[in-house]
């Protein structure tokens, strides 16, 4: 048994090293996006071994001062809606929600079902959650999306900018779907299911950034210049090309060190979100006092 374990460990280590080498070559031979949004879908040879560290990153976050509500200015009860990623429900975002609640925000996780449907359908569901949160609080909402949840957050903000106080995306390929081949294969399978299920209700390019639906077309356009935007990225993203997860010309960009999944459980990311929300909340309050 020990020999089997050692062999498995050696194979795993060799695979991880090979993955790092392939990823290094991929980044050396490819470029950042040329356009605001690249509509085609391409393979990104990232290193998925980084995602194995996600449980450790969760434990570290739960032991951090940021998880206990430290490291950022106090919130004033402003509503925050958290949006889960592809093929995920909101359970994994509970630690981040807890941290934001301890900072003083009215945080909730968007209950939009399994995130594996037409982007237009998912954005409609998110808008219903956001509008309910806005009506309950009486002020615009901050929307924070992880991975594909960031695409939904940004699409929702583009469609109803007045309902939104700020947008935060974490590891969200908003500028082009450049994904690890395993994730591309999964997305293709989900796309096939969507077409079989919804048939003529969806367009041929559904679940890509080439789709002609309202939400995807909104994604391809810049948000209003005065709407605060934050993008949190990691060079160690094992699922998506991190260069496609932010637009420095229109977003504040914060780089942290963690895996793709770990972006939702990272102390530095949580601190950046808290600081971003505080500035955006102050700007929203000032705008309301001025009557604009």
Structure description:
- The protein has helices spanning 2-29, 54-62, 94-103, 119-137, 148-159, 181-198, 214-219, 267-290; strands at 38-43, 79-83, 106-109, 141-146, 164-170, 176-179, 229-233, 252-255.
- The chain has 292 residues and is an alpha/beta fold.
- Helix 4 (119-137) crosses helix 5.
- The chain has one domain (31-290): 3-Layer(aba) Sandwich (Rossmann fold), CATH 3.40.50.
In summary, what is this structure?
With 292 residues, this protein is α/β, with parallel strands linked by helices.
List the helices and strands and how they pair.
Layout: H1 2-29, E1 38-43, H2 54-62, E2 79-83, H3 94-103, E3 106-109, H4 119-137, E4 141-146, H5 148-159, E5 164-170, E6 176-179, H6 181-198, H7 214-219, E7 229-233, E8 252-255, H8 267-290
Parallel strand pairs: 1-6, 2-3, 2-4, 4-5, 5-7, 7-8
Helix pairs in contact: 4-5
- Report the helical percentage: 40-55%
- The geometry reads as globular
The domain count comes to: 1
CATH topology assignment: Rossmann fold
What is the N-to-C order of secondary-structure elements (H for helix, E for strand)?
HEHEHEHEHEEHHEEH
Largest sheet: 6 strands, parallel
Q: Which CATH first-tier class would you pick? A: Alpha Beta
Structural class: alpha/beta
Please compute the radius of gyration using only Cα atoms.
19 Å
């Amino acid at each position: 048994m020990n020999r089997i374990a050692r062999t498995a460990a050696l194979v795993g280590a060799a695979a991880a090293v090979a993955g790092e080498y392939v990823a290094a070559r991929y980044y050396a031979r490819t470029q950042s996006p040329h356009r605001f949004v690249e509509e085609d879908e391409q393979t990104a040879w990232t290193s998925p071994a980084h995602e194995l560290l996600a449980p450790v990153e969760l434990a570290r976050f739960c032991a951090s001062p940021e998880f206990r509500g430290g490291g950022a200015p106090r919130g004033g009860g402003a509503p925050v809606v958290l949006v889960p990623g592809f093929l995920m429900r909101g359970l994994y975002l509970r630690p981040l929600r807890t941290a934001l609640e301890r900072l003083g925000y009215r945080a909730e996780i968007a209950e939009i079902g399994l995130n594996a449907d037409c982007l237009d359908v998912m954005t409609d569901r998110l808008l219903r959650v956001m509008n309910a949160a806005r009506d309950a609080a009486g002020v615009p909402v901050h929307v924070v999306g992880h991975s594909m949840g960031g695409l939904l957050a940004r699409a929702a903000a583009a469609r109803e900018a007045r309902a939104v106080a700020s947008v935060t995306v974490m590891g969200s390929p908003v500028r082009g779907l450049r994904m690890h081949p395993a994730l591309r294969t999964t997305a293709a399978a989900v796309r096939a299911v969507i077409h079989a299920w919804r048939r003529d209700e969806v367009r041929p390019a559904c679940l890509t950034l080439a789709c002609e639906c309202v939400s995807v077309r909104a994604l391809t356009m810049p948000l209003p210049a005065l709407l605060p935007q934050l993008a949190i990225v990691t060079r160690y993203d094992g699922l998506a090309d991190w260069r496609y997860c932010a637009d420095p010309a229109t977003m504040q960009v914060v780089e942290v060190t963690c895996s793709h999944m770990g972006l939702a459980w990272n102390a530095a990311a949580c601190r950046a979100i808290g600081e971003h929300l505080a500035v955006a909340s102050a700007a929203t309050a000032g705008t309301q006092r001025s009557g604009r």
